Automatic annotation (TrEMBL):
<dbReference type="Pfam" id="PF08531">
    <property type="entry name" value="Bac_rhamnosid_N"/>
</dbReference>
<dbReference type="InterPro" id="IPR035398">
    <property type="entry name" value="Bac_rhamnosid_C"/>
</dbReference>
<dbReference type="Pfam" id="PF05592">
    <property type="entry name" value="Bac_rhamnosid"/>
</dbReference>
<dbReference type="Pfam" id="PF17390">
    <property type="entry name" value="Bac_rhamnosid_C"/>
</dbReference>
<dbReference type="Pfam" id="PF17389">
    <property type="entry name" value="Bac_rhamnosid6H"/>
</dbReference>
<dbReference type="Pfam" id="PF25788">
    <property type="entry name" value="Ig_Rha78A_N"/>
</dbReference>
<dbReference type="InterPro" id="IPR013783">
    <property type="entry name" value="Ig-like_fold"/>
</dbReference>
<dbReference type="InterPro" id="IPR016007">
    <property type="entry name" value="Alpha_rhamnosid"/>
</dbReference>
<dbReference type="InterPro" id="IPR008928">
    <property type="entry name" value="6-hairpin_glycosidase_sf"/>
</dbReference>
<dbReference type="InterPro" id="IPR013737">
    <property type="entry name" value="Bac_rhamnosid_N"/>
</dbReference>
<feature type="domain" description="Alpha-L-rhamnosidase C-terminal">
    <location>
        <begin position="793"/>
        <end position="863"/>
    </location>
</feature>
<keyword id="KW-0378">Hydrolase</keyword>
<dbReference type="InterPro" id="IPR008902">
    <property type="entry name" value="Rhamnosid_concanavalin"/>
</dbReference>
<feature type="domain" description="Bacterial alpha-L-rhamnosidase N-terminal">
    <location>
        <begin position="160"/>
        <end position="332"/>
    </location>
</feature>
<dbReference type="InterPro" id="IPR035396">
    <property type="entry name" value="Bac_rhamnosid6H"/>
</dbReference>
<protein>
    <recommendedName>
        <fullName>alpha-L-rhamnosidase</fullName>
        <ecNumber>3.2.1.40</ecNumber>
    </recommendedName>
</protein>
<dbReference type="InterPro" id="IPR012341">
    <property type="entry name" value="6hp_glycosidase-like_sf"/>
</dbReference>
Length: 890
């Protein structure tokens, strides 16, 4: 429905407003609303808006909006506009639309969007948790458990005509929900994992169209083990948390057309069984499926469940109930394999052509009892067999047992694998490549960025980065998807998350991760190395837990949302006090570090062959430099929150740390042991006195050019500051050299040796195989940040977080002929595409509606500069551009 314009409005043809909607089932009473404006007319900005919020679409007009009519508000803000209407009741669906006025006229009313307010309080939930808190005789819960899926069902009558029906569900560890014989939604491996002693996420589904009014209905729920029933039982219980057996709490709230409502919830009247087709499932070992145990129609009305058990009431999880604000996982892409080769006996090797994360869909036909095994690996041995050693004790095998001679198509539900190659054995006939299809699984988030250059090595690195980052989004950012680890290590994403922001719509994921970190904090202030803290690693160092501050800062700078600072400020401050109290000596040196510059490359590929890379090299230089950096960061946070009284304390401690750092680590023109990272950190953090900066930077350059023959020698920490620091000191050419190298150590070396994702180690092809994941993101460092903010030049404004005002200032580095990048910012698409033709550069720019770009010309552009064909004023090296598309030639 499109409303007419009030008298005096001038409607602009082609001016559109698109709402950025909230997820369903939120538990925030006054959420923030956002929208994007698009038009082909240049220099358009918003002058006012009007938001209508109502309890039904029919009431979304200026006279009847029963929840909120903002009126015409003079403002250019279109992001994070706080809903200021009636306080919402639980289980409420809310509809909204917006209209904007611009300097060129007004829009029509937007299309209708909606959000729902869920069950905010513990007592809002009806019914009880059900499950089976025990293993059955055919199950094993020793170190390598074989615990099958649990199945629960119930039939209920819908007595009247339905107006609206909503499911609220907590299924732990993982669930799949069915109504009347159909799966509900397209999520997989739901819900998002948490530390279930701290919080439990619930999901919400509108099932109005799936229920049968005035009839019998059936609900069925499958429960997988997930992170709740831990992948390794009774193995290092001092280290690995275990939460119990799978369980579920289900509420279906039905609103009838006559105004009444009814709640269907889990109880001991439900029926359940563990004797179903999924005989075992976990992330490490795979899924075992026996089709002979299937019970067709179990999720439909009329199924005979007389042989099933009564569901049992079980202890609820200790964590608080929370609406899940981040996206669930989903099958996001299908991957067609590229080859299928026999390797002897009944065994075949399937090559997907890409190291991916997810599972394999299989189509098979045989005889009852035929057993097909699918074993997964990232690479092959020289003899063509799977290379399994780097997976440690993860069994990574899916098993399917046929029940008859009918063709069947199957894929697992409660596991995933990191793999390129699959060994297929026991297949009942000669397999064909078209019998198999890869399913890539990660969080249901959009790819926002595009990046391409004239250099094929850079392009392949970017593609490898995309596959690795996406595949490791698992409701939290995990380190790797294939071996018996798959943990959300903080250190892996510190600066990397900044670059990921340009590539993926991951804001809600990283907000959730900040909560995971905050809830993992000990009462004394200690923060973990892994969060959620499935592994009890509290090693006390500045770099891994310090990611907490860096992610919060990144989200604020990139979105302008102050809530990420406000919600985490106290916990961050508490941690820094804890570290100072325990580990800062009288000279203001932070003496405690755990990992140092993790996984620095060996001096040569020969020296690294067969060597163990799991070597810790603690460094007080690194921990002290980071404490200095975090004091400056906390000062900025205090300014954002108006906590002016905290700033002098931070600044005073920062200066003392700086004095101690200089005294302890500055030699004659270099820091520490004159390693690249030793010098990069003080340069990147602004710790080097002005008179010494060039000399220290010269040491970095000499290390790269002379000692390393044009290569890096940094590990996880140093690589996070490498590319930007080189460019900031005028050596983008050297950064490009490092980025495009194809010899060891480099990202290009990985490609030359077959990598289609990013390795855990610079020498991952020859290192001792107990630690050489072929799909990690941590060694990307600041490379993807450099791609977008330096090569393409797209960066949030220094004094304007969130891209309302942003900068465009590429490094037009010699050696590249073109860079083409775009990024769907919160306001719309920002584009930067430059191309070198001889001595001339043509630079095309796209600026979204309601934003301003500060475009900075290269210092080398001393000649005539044309902007859309017109000559800029002489000496004009910076221009401000409103929305539209532009072309600069110089």
């Amino acid at each position: 429905m499109v409303m007419g314009h009030p008298e005096g409005d001038v409607a602009v043809e082609g001016l559109k407003v698109e709402m950025l909607t909230n997820p369903s089932g939120i538990d925030v009473r006054f959420p923030k609303l956002s929208w994007q404006i698009s038009t082909d007319q240049k220099a358009t900005y918003q002058e006012a808006y009007q938001v209508l919020v109502a309890s039904s679409p029919e009431l979304l007009n200026t006279e009847e909006a029963d929840l909120w009519n903002s009126g015409k508000v003079a403002s250019d803000e279109c992001l994070n506009v706080r809903y200021a209407g009636e306080e919402l009741e639980k289980d409420t669906k809310v509809y909204w639309r917006v209209k904007v006025w611009t300097n060129h006229g007004s829009s029509a009313w937007s299309a209708t969007a909606h959000w729902s307010f869920g069950l905010p309080y513990y007592k809002d939930w009806r019914g009880r948790w059900i499950g089976f808190d025990r293993a059955f005789p055919w199950e094993d819960i020793s170190t390598f458990p074989t615990l099958g899926a649990r199945y629960f069902r119930n039939e209920f009558e819908v007595k009247k005509q339905i107006k609206r029906a909503t499911v609220y569900l907590m299924g732990l560890g993982l669930y799949e929900l069915h109504l009347n014989g159909q799966k509900v939604g397209d999520a997989v491996l739901a819900p998002s994992p948490t530390d279930y002693t701290q919080n439990v996420k619930y999901n919400t589904y509108d099932v109005t169209e799936m229920l049968r009014g005035e009839a019998e209905n059936a609900v069925g729920i499958m429960l997988g083990n997930g992170r709740y029933f831990t992948m390794r039982q009774n193995y290092k219980p001092y280290k690995i948390k275990n939460f119990g057996f799978p369980k579920v709490l289900f509420n279906l709230i039905i609103h009838y057309a006559d105004g009444s409502k009814e709640v269907v919830s889990t109880s001991d009247e439900w029926k359940g069984t563990a004797d179903g087709p999924i005989r075992n499932n976990n992330e490490y070992d795979g899924e075992y499926y026996d089709a002979n145990k299937e019970f067709p129609g179990w999720d439909s009305v009329g199924f005979d469940d007389s042989s099933w058990l009564q569901a049992e009431y079980v202890q609820e999880p200790r964590g608080d109930y929370e609406a899940q604000m981040n996206e669930n996982m989903k099958v996001m892409r299908e991957v067609v394999p590229i080859s299928l080769e026999a390797i002897g006996g009944d065994r075949y090797i399937l090559d997907m052509g890409q190291n991916m994360v997810g599972w394999l869909q299989m189509t098979a036909q045989g005889e009852k009892g035929d057993t097909v095994k699918l074993k997964f690996a990232e690479s092959l041995q020289e003899d063509g067999e799977l290379f399994m050693t780097n997976l440690r004790d993860a069994k990574v095998t899916d098993t399917y047992i046929l029940k008859d001679d009918q063709e069947v198509t199957w894929e697992p539900r409660f596991t995933y694998h990191g793999f390129r190659f699959v060994e297929i054995s026991g297949y009942p006939r000669e397999p064909k490549i078209e019998d198999f299809l890869g399913k890539m699984v990660y969080d249901d988030i959009r790819t926002l960025g595009q990046f391409e250059t004239s250099d094929p090595v850079l392009n392949q690195i970017y593609q490898n980065a995309w596959w690795g980052i996406a595949g490791n989004y698992k409701g939290m950012p995990v380190d790797c998807p294939q071996r018996n680890e798959r943990q959300p290590w903080l250190g892996d994403r510190a600066v990397g998350a900044h670059g990921e922001f340009y590539m993926f719509d991951n804001v809600r994921l990283y907000k959730k991760w900040l909560e995971d970190i905050r809830l993992a904090q000990k009462a004394d202030g200690a923060l973990p190395d892994v969060a959620p803290a499935y592994w009890r690693y509290y090693s006390d160092n500045m770099t891994w837990p310090g990611t907490y501050l860096m992610i919060a800062d990144m989200l604020y700078q990139q979105t302008g949302d102050t809530s990420v600072i406000r919600e985490n400020y106290a916990a961050m401050k508490k941690w820094l006090v804890y570290m100072a109290d325990r580990y800062m000596n009288d000279e203001f040196i932070v003496t405690k570090d755990s990992y140092g510059d993790w996984v620095v490359p060996p001096p040569s590929i020969e020296a690294g062959t067969g060597q163990n890379a799991d070597v810790k090299r603690p460094s007080a230089l690194i921990s002290t430099a980071y404490y200095y950096h975090f004091m400056e960061m906390m000062s900025d946070f205090a300014r954002v929150l108006g906590k002016q009284r905290d700033i002098p304390e931070y600044q005073a401690l920062k200066e003392r740390v700086h004095e101690g750092f200089q005294q302890a680590f500055y030699q004659d023109g270099f820091y520490g042991e004159n390693k690249m990272t030793d010098n990069l950190l003080p340069l990147a953090f602004g710790m080097v006195p002005e008179d010494d900066r060039q000399q220290v930077f010269d040491q970095v350059v000499e290390t790269i050019q002379v000692k390393n023959n044009g290569h890096l020698s940094t590990g996880l920490i140093g690589t996070q500051w490498l590319m930007r620091t080189l460019s900031d000191f005028g050596r983008a050419d050297l950064a490009l050299k490092i980025a495009t190298n194809t010899t060891f150590p480099s990202w290009g070396y990985m490609i030359e040796n077959g990598a289609t994702t990013i390795w855990e180690l610079w020498h991952g092809n020859v290192a001792k195989p107990t630690m050489n994941s072929q799909n990690h993101t941590m060694l990307l460092g600041d490379l993807t940040v450099w791609f977008y903010e330096y090569l393409a030049g797209i960066k949030a404004g220094a004094d304007s977080p969130g891209f309302k005002v942003f900068e465009l200032q590429p490094v037009f580095v010699e050696g590249l002929d073109s860079v083409k990048a775009s990024f769907d910012s919160p306001y719309g698409t920002i584009g930067s595409h430059w191309e070198r033709m001889g001595e001339q550069i043509t630079w095309k720019i796209k600026v979204p509606v309601n934003t301003t770009a500060i475009v900075k010309m290269p210092i080398a552009a001393t000649g005539e500069i044309l902007l859309n064909g017109e000559v800029l004023r002489s000496g004009e090296m910076e221009v401000r551009l409103s929305s539209g598309e532009y072309e600069l030639v110089f």
